[in-house]
Write a structure and sequence with these properties.
It holds the Pfam family oligo_HPY. The chain is built from twelve helices and twelve strands. The chain is α/β, with parallel strands linked by helices and 330 residues long. It has one domain: Rossmann fold, CATH 3.40.50. Bound molecules: adenosine-5'-triphosphate and magnesium ion.
């Protein structure tokens, strides 16, 4: 990667303490994220993929310090922001933004689009008086909405238009880093393509860095510079897009990718699907050693005994599997 490190994540861990049973009589710990380390480079799109519940959103939230991590560091431009209180976070808040799947949950139904976009502009003191309206119009133009949309309410917009407003709000802060958590997942396929193109245009124009969380591997393949594959709160694999899609090393990545249809009908016909057996184990009591071992087609005794190190096996290509490089998985 050419970019400098924007965010360095070291040993990031998030455990949720929950109570189980009809009367909450039993305390338990959800291992949502366990000892995760990776870098995010300036100007890149790093995508996170993996089955539901593997910790993608938790990672995004912890990076923005919206969740206080249980352990670990999130070093943003040289400063560890993990666990800072809101006051100490204030200088960083503008830089670090998030766009969610459902803009309904973030847009106030009683605020017009103009007010919604003006709010962060005023909050961060980025414009005053009459300049606010000018700034709002410029932001709407940036996300492809005509200025007259400023007078509309969220319910008067389509899903794609609402997502554009959510992006305009994030953009209003002039951020450097944006987490897109399933930001396109709820939209029609044709609208998804428009929003993806918008995100890519904005990245070019403003030099944004994205953490892109998505289920759709075809989309991830299209937009990512690098891809991280998560399984039950840990990284299984991380590498450049061509490494992860072209030469996947981890048995979990291979299984996940085997479910992606190929564009070429000939290749598609001969595609071997590798169906993962069983469900993801409970994050309340994850398997010992390698968390994937209970579903892994090549697991050996050692996989139950030791947590595989997350190793860089080729430049930029990291994998957490005991067997990679031993002539078994590669
Ligand atoms: N506030 C919370 N309290 C307790 N458990 C939580 C909380 N938030 C998340 N979890 C648990 O942490 C684990 C990781 O959740 P997370 O939302 O990060 O998964 P995800 O990869 O984003 O899944 P999805 O693809 O469904 O969005 C899950 O087991 C989830 O149930
Ligand atoms: Mg999620």
């Amino acid at each position: 990667m050419d970019g400098e490190t924007l965010i360095r994540v070291e040993g990031l861990t998030k455990h949720f303490h929950v109570r189980l049973g009809a009367f909450g009589e039993r305390a338990a710990t959800v291992h949502a994220l366990d000892d995760v380390s990776f870098d995010i480079f300036e100007g890149e799109t790093l995508s996170l993929v993996g089955e539901s519940g593997c910790g993608k959103s938790t990672t995004g939230f912890a990076l923005l310090n919206l969740h206080r991590p249980s352990a670990g560091r999130v070093v943003y431009r040289g400063r560890d922001i993990a666990g800072l209180d809101e006051k100490a976070m204030r200088p960083f808040r503008r830089d670090l933004q998030i766009v969610f799947q459902d803009p309904y949950s973030t847009l106030n139904p009683r605020m017009t689009v103009g007010e919604a976009v003006a709010e962060p502009v005023r909050h961060h003191g980025l414009a005053k008086g009459a300049d606010v309206a000018t700034r709002v119009a410029a932001l709407l133009a940036d996300v492809g909405l005509p200025a007259r949309f400023a007078a509309r309410y969220p319910h008067e917009l389509s899903g794609g238009q609402r997502q554009r407003v959510a992006i305009a709000r994030a953009l209003a802060c002039q951020p450097r880093f944006v987490v897109c958590d399933e930001a396109i997942s709820a939209l029609d396929v044709s609208i998804q393509a428009q929003i993806i193109n918008l995100l890519l245009d904005l990245q070019d124009k403003y030099g944004l860095t994205y953490l892109f969380i998505a289920h759709d591997l075809a989309v991830v393949r299209h937009i990512s510079d690098r891809v991280g594959v998560m399984y039950l709160g840990r990284f299984a694999e991380l590498g450049r897009r061509d490494q992860v899609f072209g030469e996947p090393l981890h048995p979990y990545t291979r299984a996940l990718l085997s479910a992606v249809p190929e564009a070429d009908p000939e290749v598609e016909r001969n595609r071997r699907r590798q169906v993962l057996q069983g469900d993801v184990p409970s994050p309340l009591d994850p398997p010992s050693g390698c968390r994937f071992r209970t579903r892994c087609p090549i697991a050996v005794a050692r996989c139950a005994e030791a947590v595989p190190a997350f190793r860089e096996v080729r430049p930029g290509h990291h994998v957490a599997c005991h067997l990679v490089g031993e002539g078994v998985a590669t």
